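lol ok so funny story. i was supposed to be doing the assay writeup but got distracted and ended up predicting the structure for this chain instead. priorities right. anyway since i did it might as well share w the group, maybe its usefull for someone
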Amino acid sequence: MMFLIRQPLFLLLLLTQQLAAAVAFSIQQERWDYKGHPIGYDQAGSVESSSTPIVLLNGFGVGSFHQHRLMEQLCTTTTSQRSIYGMDYLGQGRSWPRDCNDGFGTSEQDLQYSGDLWVDQAIQFIEQVVLPNQNNKQNKKKKPVQKVHLVGNSVGGHLAVFLACLRPDLVESVTLLNATPVWGLNLPGWSGSLPAPTVPRIIGRYMFDRMRDFGTIRRFLENSYFSEQAYDDELVRQIRECTEGNGGHAAFASIMWSPPVRAVKDEADSSSAKGFYDCLAALECDVLVVFGKDDPWCKPAFAKKMLQALDTRQPDKVHRYVELSNVGHCPNHEAPQAVSQLLQLWVNAADNRRSLQLVNGPTETFTEQWGDITVQELGTDSIPMGLMDRVATAFVG
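and the output, tada:
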């Protein structure tokens, strides 16, 4: 009889907790000044918590709105409170110079929309916004929060690796979600610093107008996602909205001509500059690599190359690989339940990440509104490499 009473009480308590979490979830849109430029960022979760916060770094062409599904999952499906941040890169989303005028505005002068700029912006964001927010609000008797968990999708993963390499003092762990191994075309004839010369300006304007066309955005999403039901017209509208200011054409041209990211710890020694894979091999923190298996661009073969770089680290360094079937280039948006659970296990494990059980069984299935997501952990040698994979990984990055 006691069991029969306790069971419905337990279910009622669980339901009450879930409803409370759902009601409590909200995203605060904020502004921050970076070198005179207004930067848009989103914050969710509890700044009262002394737990290490999570910083989400976006892919290209979107704002932190692309992280909202993951933010909600992280905030409503865990008992441990943690603050979560998403930041729009300068020249993306809600982050633009004050007087954009096709590259000729006063605040646009000499601005280079490079990966190096975004890495520096993310570092300053952590130092000036994230950590002060945590340490101003938390109980003064507790130990100050000094680091963050970085989670980067696509180019966000690329930037996260450089940030963690340059500033290991700021990073507790890195999670790479279909990270791109390359960024920055370094096209000839211009450094990418605004204003653009005539030819790059014309080319950039033409390419940008083609890319931000509604039809092109939909085709890009169709290729990026495994399931067409995982994105909607609202996402198309949000992406298009990011491009409608007076600075988009100039920013796109600058991005096309800007050089690749390089981690330079000693400005006087150019030989100290590290590329992406060198930075991976130098990371001092734990690394979780998560790839959507059905990404047409950043395929698991690139994850294998990343893991091979991580394998060269000291034996005490931890890195793990998890693959998501029926997921494309944006696991944070297409598989928020699976990614949320992996992240929660990962960030809460602290010193136990090597033996942590990330997947419940050989495989685990999560059901999203648009279909089932299958999760599986693999070792480096278990990731298959076809002929085209070998060619692609040899020539890219």
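Confidence is low (pLDDT under 50) at residues 1-6, 19-23. The two ends are 65 Å apart (CA to CA).
back to the writeup now i swear
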